[in-house]
Amino acid sequence: MPFKIIASQCTSCSACEPLCPNVAISEKGGNFVIEAAKCTECVGYFDEPQCVAACPLDNTCVVDTSLPRYQAPAKSVSPHERHAKSWC
């Protein structure tokens, strides 16, 4: 599930925006928002979502439970790697 920013709690400090590895956070009308289609919950980049880590207010960057959880693409294995593993 991507994260969302609770607008009524956001102080517009912008601490989260530069830390997002997917450039999913932007300012709109004085509030910061997370573009759900770009949010990967920082999977593959960090151990915890950077918007949550950077936000000075608890429970301002929260999971958007109305959307499905992010699924990282499956890692493809090259034919060379498959062949090498079969010899082990």
Please describe what this structure looks like.
The chain is an alpha+beta fold and 88 residues long. It is 15% helix and 16% strand. The chain contains two helices and four strands, in the order E-E-E-H-E-H. It has helices at residues 50-54, 79-86; strands at 3-5, 25-28, 31-34, 61-63. A two-stranded antiparallel sheet has the order 1-4. The protein has a two-stranded antiparallel sheet with strand order 2-3. A hairpin with a 2-residue loop joins strand 2 and strand 3 (31-34). The radius of gyration is 17 Å and the shape is elongated. The chain starts with a strand and ends with a helix. The model has no long low-confidence stretch (mean pLDDT 87).
Structure at a glance:
It contains two helices and four strands; from the N terminus they run E-E-E-H-E-H. It has 88 residues and is an alpha+beta fold.
SSE string, helices as H and strands as E: EEEHEH
Uncertain ranges:
none
The radius of gyration is 17 Å
**Biggest beta sheet attributes:** 2 strands, antiparallel
Strand content: 15-25%
What is the strand tally? 4
Main traits of this protein?
two-stranded antiparallel ribbon, 2 helices, elongated, 88 residues, alpha+beta
List the helices and strands and how they pair.
Blueprint (H helix, E strand, L loop, with lengths): L2 E3 L19 E4 L2 E4 L15 H5 L6 E3 L15 H8 L2
Antiparallel strand pairs: 1-4, 2-3
